[in-house]
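Box 4.2: Ligand-aware structure prediction
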Amino acid sequence: MKPLTITSRLEVYESIDEIPDSVKVLMEKAAEVRDNAYAPYSEFKVGAALLLDNDEVVVGSNQENASYPSGLCAERTAVYYAGARYPEADILKIAITARSLKRQILSPVPPCGACRQALVEYEVKQDRPIEIYFMGESGKVVKAYSIGDLLPLVFDSSWL
Ligand code: THU
């Protein structure tokens, strides 16, 4: 047996005011769309904003459903819309923010596993990393240089 160590390099910013201006604008767009999320069941609202290489910004929020599994996360709402609207464009960055109507979320909220898998698909397709920034309602912001840093040992099309 040989141990296998997997490392990911992340960066932590103390607040939204520390991130680069262009990302701050993206995060503000994510916050705007977050507050209009349709989340009557969880009361946990998430917003995501994507910057594409054609300079377009595509946003998404979580959309819940009385049949719970039929709902969709903010990140996938955004990424699938980007794929539908701008199929040729590469995704450069994604900003994610979450807010609960029940309590204050002051720690960075990472994307769920299913959204990481969905995002990695586009990273592989475009053969270019997607930078990801995530935060709570306020407080620290975490940056990863690639979705791959959040999803090691990825299952992708190379296995098929
Ligand atoms: N949610 C997201 O939109 N993104 C994530 O990465 C995690 C969870 C949504 C799904 C559901 O509407 C609510 O947050 C509670 O799980």
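In the box above, the bound molecule is tetrahydrodeoxyuridine. The helical segments are 21-34, 74-85, 113-126.
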